[in-house]
Specification:
single chain; alpha+beta; 6-stranded antiparallel sheet; two-stranded antiparallel ribbon; 3 helices; 8 strands; globular
């Protein structure tokens, strides 16, 4: 009985790690939402040195770049595309062990760049996970197809 109770409590704790979806997801006035003051977020369309990450550049047309990006992000384990339009993609990345969710956004402005924002829903520090993920996506995106 004690083990069942412990397992039930652990299951509820793990399920609760997903957090609530943020209210500020999306593009407003041509920009992604700023990062919170916590170090668990990176963003390319703002100059805050603690959170800044370079946007992803591309050549060719936006539609082909979007298709390439979608094929890359969906190849990661535990991903789900939440919202998609011709200029925007919102993807949830779920961690393996505790099922933490990171919200990752990609925005295609008129320039041949992809602005990115990657933020953890919960916690304070992400130990650099969001930055590493975006750099891994950038590296795969820049590989010759």
């Amino acid at each position: 009985m004690k083990n069942q109770t412990l397992l039930t409590v652990c299951a509820f704790l793990i399920a609760g790690c997903a957090g609530n979806p943020p209210h500020n997801i999306g593009v407003q006035s041509g920009r992604l939402a700023p990062c919170p003051k916590k170090p668990n977020c990176v963003i390319s369309d703002q100059t805050d040195a603690d959170h800044f990450i370079e946007p992803i550049g591309y050549s060719g047309n936006r539609k082909a770049a979007m298709q390439r990006l979608k094929s890359i992000v969906t190849a990661f384990d535990r991903t789900r595309i939440v919202t998609e339009s011709d200029r925007y993609l919102h993807v949830e990345f779920k961690s393996f062990l505790f099922r933490f969710i990171d919200d990752v956004e990609f925005y295609f402005p008129d320039e041949k760049i992809i602005h990115v924002r990657s933020a953890s829903r919960m916690g304070y520090s992400d130990l650099g996970v969001n930055r590493k993920r975006i750099e891994a996506i950038r590296a795969r995106f820049n590989e010759t197809p």
